[in-house]
């Protein structure tokens, strides 16, 4: 009798303990997912891009068609999606614009610092010119702060577009930036467009230069 009673009491305590453990585990999973989603949907820092082509820039402005420039960090995983969307834009609007990607290279880094899979992804896009932004001079001249920041200027050096071309960090698919660029290039809209940029910071004083600039929360 005592043995059965003891066994029953033990089982009755085990069930609530298991439920508590499951609830705690599910809570941790939900919280982790919420942090990841929050991170993915939080735009990067963004300043106003110059309304007219900056004087002194060594970036060439095309004289016969609009010029698109994307500023990027060669070690930002979020930028893969931005480059994929750029590839799509080039395919859909081939011949409508001149495109360049400028990868930052901070002072004090060696020549191999920009040699990354992200650089090679950009270099594989047909017709897109790739450059190294030594000492971050050009990205700062255009007030870019987040990797994937894209600008479009017309032949006269007037700003048409500034912002990002993804809907969130590392997300592929329809988004306001890509749609606006296609419409601007096809001249179905003429007003200046600004969208949010989702990506890693281009520069940070507190981050070691060789470290990946953006790591999603675990």
The run of helices and strands is HEHEHEHEEHE
**Between the first and last Cα atoms, what is the distance in angstroms?**
50 Å
User: What gyration radius follows from the Cα positions, in whole Å?
Assistant: 24 Å
Low-confidence stretches: 1-8, 206-212
Strand segment tally: 6
Determine the structural class based on helices, strands and strand pairing.
alpha/beta
Kindly state the percentage of residues in helix.
Answer: 25-40%
Shape: globular
**Strand order, largest beta sheet:** 3-2-1-4-5-6
Report strand %: 15-25%
Characterize the biggest β-sheet: 6 strands, mixed
Annotation field: number of helices: 5
Mean pLDDT over all positions? 84
Question: How would you classify the quaternary structure?
Answer: single chain
How would you describe the overall organization of this protein?
By secondary structure, this protein is an alpha/beta fold. Helix content is 34%, strand content 15%. It has helices spanning 2-40, 79-92, 117-123, 137-141, 176-185, and strands at 67-72, 98-105, 128-134, 149-153, 159-163, 193-194. It has a 6-stranded mixed beta sheet with strand order 3-2-1-4-5-6. The chain is globular. Residues 1-8 and 206-212 have low confidence and may be disordered.
């Amino acid at each position: 009798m005592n043995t059965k009673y003891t066994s029953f009491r033990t089982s009755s305590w085990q069930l609530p303990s298991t439920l508590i453990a499951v609830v705690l585990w599910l809570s941790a999973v939900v919280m982790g997912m919420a942090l990841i989603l929050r991170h993915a949907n939080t735009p990067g820092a963004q300043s106003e891009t110059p309304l007219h082509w900056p004087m002194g820039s060594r970036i060439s402005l095309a004289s016969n068609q609009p010029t698109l420039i994307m500023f990027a960090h060669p070690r930002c995983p979020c930028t893969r999606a931005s480059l994929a969307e750029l590839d799509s834009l080039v395919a859909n609007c081939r011949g409508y614009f001149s495109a360049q990607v400028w990868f930052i290279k901070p002072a004090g880094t060696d020549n191999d610092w920009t040699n990354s899979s992200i650089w090679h992804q950009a270099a594989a896009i047909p017709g897109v010119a790739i450059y190294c932004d030594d000492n971050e001079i050009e990205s700062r001249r255009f007030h870019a702060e987040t990797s994937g920041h894209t600008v479009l200027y017309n032949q006269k050096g007037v700003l048409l577009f500034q912002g990002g071309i993804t809907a969130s960090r590392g997300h592929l698919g329809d988004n306001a930036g890509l749609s606006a660029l296609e419409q601007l290039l096809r001249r179905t809209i003429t007003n200046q467009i600004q969208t949010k940029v989702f990506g890693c910071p281009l520069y940070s004083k507190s981050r070691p230069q060789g470290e990946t600039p953006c790591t999603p929360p675990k």
